[in-house]
Each structure stands twice: as structure tokens, then as C-alpha cells.
Write a structure and sequence with these properties.
The protein is 47% helix and 11% strand. By secondary structure, the chain is of the alpha+beta class. The relative contact order is 0.08. The two termini are 32 Å apart. Helix 5 (148-158) crosses helix 8, helix 10 (278-308) packs antiparallel against helix 14 and helix 12 (332-352) packs across helix 14 (381-394).
Length: 487
Amino acid sequence: MPRPLTDSLDANVAHLKEMFGNSADLYAKPVNVRGVPCCLCFFEGLSTLERLWVVMLSMLNESHFEPANGQDLFNYIQHQTDLPVENAPVEDFDALRTQLTAGTTVMLIDGCCKAVVLSTQNMQFRSVQEPSGEGDIRGSREGFCDLVRINVSLVRRLVRTESLTIKIFPAGKRTGTEVAMLYDRTLAKPEFVEAIEKKLKSVDLPVLFDSGYLAPYLQRGSFSFFQEVGYTERPVTAAAKICEGKIIVLVNASPFAMIVPYFFNENFQSLDDYAGKAYFASAVRLLKYTAFFLSVLLPGLFVSIAEYTPELFPPQLLYKVAAAETATPLPLFMEMMLVIVLLEIIREAGLRLPKPIGHSVSLVAALIVGDAATKAGIMSTPVLIVAALTTISIFVIPSLYEPATVLRVLFVLAGGLFGPFGLVTMFFLMLVSICGMHSFGVPYTSPLVPFGRSALRDGLVRMPWQRLASHPFDVNDLPGGEENYES
């Protein structure tokens, strides 16, 4: 039970300072407003002192009201002035903490058990910029920033309908981070919204600094290589998903919006698909599917054929592979694993270093190490070409980089240790893993499996806008929506 405010100003101020441990950035200024003792409280850096004094001086100079006690002053400021006050006053110390950490100014009044909340926020944050992780040629250049309220406003500006609903609640025991749920109440099923909201509010996390922290709580307990939630840095993408009946989850301090539910085929879609010609968008999607399976299967397939069934290679290719392998000290299987690990190390080095030198270091390292290794006879050229080709292929689908990297290693292990039988078994397990997933009652592979007409409208390929506009996509059209959302 939160501790309520008392009618004693000194007791309230003393408990407030004790609650925050006499923090250096807590500003608590005693003032006299129309003869009533008050205290203005805010955190330096979250609220602006200049704006606060302008607000207070304006009220003191222009008003001739003389309150009889603190309750009269509260009623006057809350209901009869033009001051920028919040609708809901503060009545307990939990609400007081929430308002102060949100950047507002709270005015405690002697003789009143409620406090006035003044909107004087002045928090510094990263401005709205173009997202760095989602490259598109056409469409909006805006990206989410780090403040959840700004991100909500970016989506509200794009979805200008009365059915857009936004719910905000805290999460994280030690941080009290704001989490926002955005959805269209005419498109999203009420039971689906209720299930997601219940799961988010029941999250037991000590801290929350990114939307990715919430993903394990929204998925099934069984292990899977793929995620049932997606992410985007673009408000326009979030708005499009809301118009499909999905839910967007925003977390304060994170520019990544979570999309719930999320399906396998959405990893191969982009904003550019809908801004260009349908035939070219379809070709690009098929290219992305090819690149994904190429990045996952090619290294293992190459190792399996070279080790167990070399007769499947054309004679000229077989001669070159055999000649290259005889000049290297490592077996082909170990060589492929070493190259994959080396490329991942170079990639991580490029990501973690400062941007001005990160790209240069990764490029120079790849060129020098690769060239030196082949000249020294430590690695063969065919293995380097295969590993580099698969690494480049997965960059076409960056959202699947993590599962594709792990699956690539597993396919190399399966092909190197067990040959064609290991490859077939691993491929079957991967298909079972993908097809066995359900994203909140809907098959993860929808609309591809089970196959539906929407797979040919906006799945594997994309139809022209005339066809798409005649029946806009809705997540409720997919099979399986009647299942239990709690599973």
C-alpha cells in the first residue's frame, strides 16, 4: 500500500528527501504562494528552472485570489488557473516519485493532502534521426528515438484514427521503466490484447532498458532458433503493423519497437516492396529467400560433398578443390569451421569499435588475413569463397542473422561428421522447428504453411496495389487465431 501524502508540508518534504537519500539533483525550494507555505520539487536536468519560475511569477502577478488555507490554494491552481497542470494530482509518494522522475514539477502545499503537478519537462534526448539498422531507398526517413513519449507521438501522427489505443504502464522493479502498448482496437482482438497486456504486466524483471528484455516473456517456453516477435526502428513500419491488427510495444530508452505477433515471411519484407513495381518486389523477395537458404546450407553442403560424395562435383571443380586441399594442413571440415569463426570475430570487432575505424578495421582484417592465409597455405581458396559468399548472403536479411549464423555452424557440423544423412536430418529438424512454432495462436509460417491465397498476394510474391487494396491484410484472416493466446 503506497504511503499517502499528509497535510503537513514539513513531513512530506522530509519523507521525500529521505526517500531519495538527500540526492544532490533533487531540487526542493520552499516558497510562499499567496501566503500559503509550499515547496517546489523537481530533478535538475529533467525539468527547467527558468520555465518553472515564469509559470509561478505569472500566477503571482496576475492573480488577486487570496486562499484561506492550503486546500483552497490547491483547488484554485488545479481547477481555476491557466497553469500547465496535469489532470491527476499526486496523492501518495509512489505517484510523487513517478511524476518527479518523468520530468514534471510537483508543488507540495501545506494543509493539503494532494500536490499539484506542473508540466515543466526539459529532458535532453537524442533527436529523431534516420534509423541506421533499416536501410530503405523509398519511404519515410524518420526513426524512433529513446523517449517513449516521443515515439508514441510519431506513431500517433501517422495513424490519425480514433481507434488507435495507447496504454502505458511501468515495468522493472528497480527502474520503473515506462512500457507502451499501441494497437487498433477495431482490428486487434480484445482477448489477444488482454493476453499481451497481462503478460507484460506480469514480467518480473529487476531492470528494463530495451524491448528485447520482454521477448522471452511473450514467447512459448520451448526452445526455438527463431523469434515470435519482430523489431523495427521506423515509425512508418510500426504504423503499418498496427493497421494489420498487430500490437506494437515501446520501451523507454529503446529506439526499437517490438511487433507482436511476427511471422517468418515478414523477415523478407521491407518498405521498398510497396513503393516500387510489384514484379520487382516479388523478384527481390525470392532473392532474399534464396540468400537465406544459401547462407544456411551452402557451407555444410560443400563440406558434405567434398568429404563424402566428391563425384557430385564437376571434374574441373573437383580438381581445383582437391588441389587446394592437398596444400593445406587442416581437414576441410575443420578449415570451414575456422573460417566461419574468424569471419564472426572480424564482424564483432567492426561492430564494437568506434564507427570511424570499425569498418576500416574489419575490411583490412578480412583482406589481410584472407590473403595471408591462402598464400601461406593455411586455408584454401574454395573454402574462403564459400564462407565469404554465405556471410554476404545473410546480410540481405539482417533480422535473421543470429539464427542463420547458428544454423550454418550446425549444418557444417552435421555435414562434416555425418555426411548427406546429417544434412538431411538437420534440414528436417530446422523445418520442424519453424513449422512447429505458433505466434500467439497463429502458425509462425503463415501464410506460407498452411498455404493460403494471401501467400500469393503478399507472401512469397507481391501483387499490385489494386489487388492488395481490394482486401487489405488483417492478422485475423490467418488460420489458427482461435487458439489459446496464453499458450
